[in-house]
Amino acid sequence: MTATALVILLHGVGSNGADLEPLGQFWQGALPGAVFVSPDAPHRFDQAPTGFQWFSIGSITPADRAARIAAARADFDALIDRIVTEQGFRDRLDRVALVGFSQGSMMLLDGIARGRWPVAAGVAFSGRLGTADPLTPAHLTPLLLIHGLADPVVPAEESRLAAERL
């Protein structure tokens, strides 16, 4: 059976793709025609012997966060492009959803906000929009921002601010 949709699950810093695979398995019942792909971020986590990262958080500050996200774009885009191409969705981005957790959310929000990934939908768990202005989305991608109020790492206010900017 040919897949009718592609959902790419993007993990947080220090994690790996396997950590989000159960989410795809859970959603498979609701989206039986979808294929779920949960890749590892392109870089080894630089603060522990295991895990991966989209960009380093070592000594990160609010002032340099946007630059780190910008520096990670090429690797992020290459990975997403490889997945959509391998799965046969390169010309069907309207059937692709990006779902991220924490740092994975930051990268997907950047890709959508900068217009590089005009996908069907984005879901960001516990993320923030660290992208510098101007934002240049290609179209109005539906976004669902989910954030726990007691998040000790990324304040929930960051999702509200992202919603305002997008």
Draw up the topology in text.
Layout: E1 5-10, H1 21-28, E2 34-37, E3 43-44, E4 52-53, H2 62-86, E5 96-101, H3 103-113, E6 121-125, E7 143-146, H4 157-165
Parallel strand pairs: 1-2, 1-5, 5-6, 6-7
Antiparallel strand pairs: 3-4
What attributes characterize this protein structure?
166 residues, alpha/beta, Rossmann fold, five-stranded parallel β-sheet, two-stranded antiparallel sheet, 4 helices, PLipase/COase/thioEstase, hydrolase activity, Phospholipase, LYPA1-2/EST-like
What does this structure look like?
By secondary structure, the chain is α/β, with parallel strands linked by helices. The protein has four helices and seven strands, in the order βαβββαβαββα. It has helices spanning 21-28, 62-86, 103-113, 157-165, and strands spanning 5-10, 34-37, 43-44, 52-53, 96-101, 121-125, 143-146. The strands form two sheets. Strands 2-1-5-6-7 form a five-stranded parallel beta sheet, with helices on both faces. α2 (62-86) packs across α3. The mean pLDDT is 95.
